[in-house]
Amino acid sequence: MTSRRSFLGIPVEGDITEGATRVDQKPIEELRPIMQAVLDDPTIIEFGWRQYTPYFNDGDPCEFSAYGLWVRTDADEGDDIDEYDLEVDSHRTLGKVPWVYSEEARKYERGTYEGPDEARYDRCQALDGAIQGGAFEHVLLEAFGDHASITVRREGIEVDFYAHD
Predict the structure, then answer these.
(1) Residue 98 to residue 83: CA distance in whole angstroms
(2) Phi-psi bin for 51: left (phi > 0), alpha (psi -120 to 50), beta?
(3) What residue ranges in 13-61 does DSSP mark as E strands?
(4) Which domain of life is it from (predicted)?
């Protein structure tokens, strides 16, 4: 796109390709209360996520991100359930907010909460937004490194190497 910009008062002409638009970063102190709200819930046994820089991204820049927040509740305890089945958006015991088609609006809209405890669901969704939203990427990368699988329990945090494609 041709630009009518200036740099230090000097006109700039030509095609300017915009760089990556990263989310503004937040300090760890802003993550603490969001994470603590989930840790304080006695029905939540553990939670975690994966964080890594992709090796290849179909020509797009490979940038570090955190993915797939999952939560194990006491209702999931003892079950041999993969953490992918416990991801917050499609969790079997936290409940859900389904997408429903609105004939009037002619589009899909968020429905109403279905499940046992909407406040718990909302706390987990807030943590999901904090982890996957990008605002804490620097904090997460510094704390746990790249190519990591993180598991958080009240008694401690476990970091394992995460192999991905």
Answers:
(1) 21
(2) beta
(3) 44-52
(4) Bacteria
Distance CA 114, CA 89 (A): 12
Residue 13 makes CB contacts below 8 A (sequence gap 6+) with 2, 3, 4
| pLDDT on residue 152 | 96
Interatomic CA distance for residues 127 and 131, integer angstroms: 6
**Residue ranges of the alpha helices (H) in the chain?**
28-39, 118-132, 137-144
Distance between CA atoms of residues 150 and 46, nearest Å:
10
d(CA 87, CA 57) in angstroms, rounded, equals 23
pLDDT averages per 10-residue partition of the chain, 165 residues: 71 74 87 97 96 80 89 84 83 90 93 94 96 94 94 95 84
CB of 70 closer than 8 Å to CB of 84: yes
Domain residue ranges in the chain: 23-161
- Long-range Cβ contact pairs of 33-39 (< 8 A, separation 24 or more): 34/126, 34/127, 34/130, 35/127, 35/130, 35/152, 37/123, 37/126, 37/127, 38/71, 38/123, 38/124, 38/127, 39/152, 39/154
pTM: 0.82
What is the per-residue pLDDT across 73-98, written as a single tens digit (0 to 9) for each? 999 877 678 787 899 987 889 999 99
